[in-house]
UniProtKB/TrEMBL annotation:
Belongs to the ABC-3 integral membrane protein family. Its main location: membrane. GO terms for cellular component: ATP-binding cassette (ABC) transporter complex. The lineage of its organism: Bacteria, Bacillati, Actinomycetota, Actinomycetes, Pseudonocardiales. Pfam families: ABC-3. This is Zinc/manganese transport system permease protein. The chain crosses the membrane at residues 20-39, 60-83, 95-115, 136-159, 179-204, 224-244, 250-269. GO terms for biological process: transmembrane transport. It is a multi-pass membrane protein. It is found in: Cell membrane; Membrane. Keywords: Membrane, Transmembrane, Transmembrane helix, Transport.
């Protein structure tokens, strides 16, 4: 009898953990692939701004009673389009992001204030609530991730060229402006999907930190991308597993593992520079 009970408990745990691990693995893959390009293009602040608009869309969805994932996706795509279209010059980028971020965050706070449901849902938008990932959310995540990966594969070569040297890419006929908008949308989708895992305030731990760690230890774009994927997966899946025993928020462990990897890579690169 006890063996059957133990088996039932094990199956329940697996059913509980499986959607989390699948969601985490997909988001780690997206973050690892997009991260090096984000770092190269100096878009860390843009990612933060997009995450705040994803929070606004999610808060609006929570208020009107539709899927939070769809609201976050709509909010982040709108933010990405606005940032891509309004940031015509590099000198304008930070001010445009700041203006859109402040407006979006204000709307998000208003939507949460009007929402009369559970407080846990409000905090989940800010700090993540991966335990709430259901079958519908998981399918949205899978379909969106596949779409991002397909588009990224199609535009990667010209996008990387434009990211490294936009002036030369423009002279060679590369549609730099169009690629910037498309990439901003891809980042927006990835950010929206990440909000449910680590929350709007901690998206940078998935989209930026692994890539920043990878670029500290290698100058090769290919190696940096592979390392960023590995670092992101270790951060996400490791953080999830570590959070199970104490039952604490996943985001705290994901960000801690990610930052620890960054510190190790930074110390390693520092030692190499001193030896040279």
């Amino acid at each position: 009898m006890e063996n059957f009970l133990d088996l039932d408990i094990t199956l329940d745990v697996l059913r509980y953990v499986q959607p989390m691990l699948i969601a985490g693995a997909l988001l780690g893959l997206l973050g690892g692939l997009l991260g090096p390009l984000i770092v190269t293009r100096k878009m860390a602040f843009a990612v933060h701004g997009t995450s705040e608009l994803a929070f606004t869309g999610a808060a609006a969805a929570l208020l009107i009673g539709i899927g939070v994932g769809y609201g976050a996706l709509a909010g982040s795509v709108i933010a990405a389009l606005l940032l891509g279209l309004l940031s015509t010059r590099d000198s304008d980028r930070d001010s445009v992001i700041g203006a859109i971020l402040a407006f979006g965050l204000g709307l998000g706070v208003l939507f949460l204030a009007l929402y009369e449901g559970r407080a846990a849902n409000k905090f989940g938008l800010l700090f993540g609530q991966v335990v709430s990932v259901g079958s519908a959310d998981l399918w949205l995540l899978v379909v969106s991730s596949v779409a991002v990966l397909v588009v990224l594969a199609l535009i990667y070569r010209p996008l990387h060229f434009a990211s490294v040297d936009a002036a030369v890419a423009t002279a060679r006929g590369v549609p730099v402006r169009t690629l910037s908008v498309v990439f901003a949308v891809l980042v927006g989708i990835a950010v929206a999907l990440s909000v449910q895992l680590v929350g709007a305030l901690l998206v940078l731990s998935l989209m930026i930190t692994p890539a920043a760690a990878a670029t500290r230890v290698t100058a090769s774009p290919l190696k940096a991308t592979l390392l960023a994927v590995v670092f992101a997966e270790v951060s996400v899946l490791g953080g999830m597993v570590l959070s199970l025993a104490p039952g604490l928020p996943v985001s705290a462990f994901v960000t801690a593992v990610s930052f620890l990897i960054y510190l190790v890579c930074r110390l390693t690169s520092g030692k190499r520079e001193r030896v040279r």
